[in-house]
Amino acid sequence: MTALAELKVFARKAAFAARREAFARGQGTACARLSEALEPFAGAPLAGYMPIRTEIDPRPAMAAHFGPVAVPVIEGAGLPLRFHRWTPGCAMVEGAFGAHVPAVAEDVTPRVLIVPLLAFDRRGFRLGYGGGFYDRTLEGLRAAGPVTAIGFAFAGQEIEEVPTEPTDAALDLIVTDAETIVPDPA
């Protein structure tokens, strides 16, 4: 295992613990802050996610979005995500990693994504679960046109510096229960 891989394993363990602690305290005003951040994107196709484990829950902001909303579908290791249309109350089935996906598969190509994470830094980098799904997906979507990636997390998930490699895709905005952060890549 490389030094970077070992560093990411350690960072993931610490991030899971920090997120678990923040989750226990509750979301506070996080969804209101997320809805406010999404206002400039009214009408644009949005991808959110179905929270698993102790992930912060974006569903109230997703339900309030004016425009099509989708959730990610994992089709296989090494592949980018696909997105299927979601509406509050739509029939859902269990997908990969226990995340629920719409029972009816209607593809949506998002221009705005709410991205789950384990940890983030002020440069706009995120630590995910290690599958590279969002990195591959953002690379492909950004090659086709403008895309905004919004990390959604508890403030307690912030770390000084996320260990990164060249394939890691940066976030354009980070919304937490405490603040909205415009990343500074410097």
UniProtKB/TrEMBL annotation:
Question: What's a Pfam family this protein contains?
Answer: 5-FTHF_cyc-lig
Q: Which keywords annotate this record?
A: ATP-binding, Ligase, Magnesium, Metal-binding, Nucleotide-binding
Which reactions does this protein catalyse?
(6S)-5-formyl-5,6,7,8-tetrahydrofolate + ATP = (6R)-5,10-methenyltetrahydrofolate + ADP + phosphate
Cofactor(s) this protein requires: Mg(2+)
InterPro entries per the record?
Answer: FTHF_cligase, FTHF_cligase-like_sf, NagB/RpiA_transferase-like
Q: Which GO terms describe its biological process?
A: folic acid-containing compound biosynthetic process; tetrahydrofolate interconversion
Q: Does the keyword Transmembrane helix apply?
A: no
Report which superkingdom the organism of origin falls in.
Bacteria
Please state the Enzyme Commission number of this protein: 6.3.3.2
Name a GO molecular-function annotation. 5-formyltetrahydrofolate cyclo-ligase activity
Q: Which family does it belong to?
A: Belongs to the 5-formyltetrahydrofolate cyclo-ligase family.
Protein name, UniProt field = 5-formyltetrahydrofolate cyclo-ligase
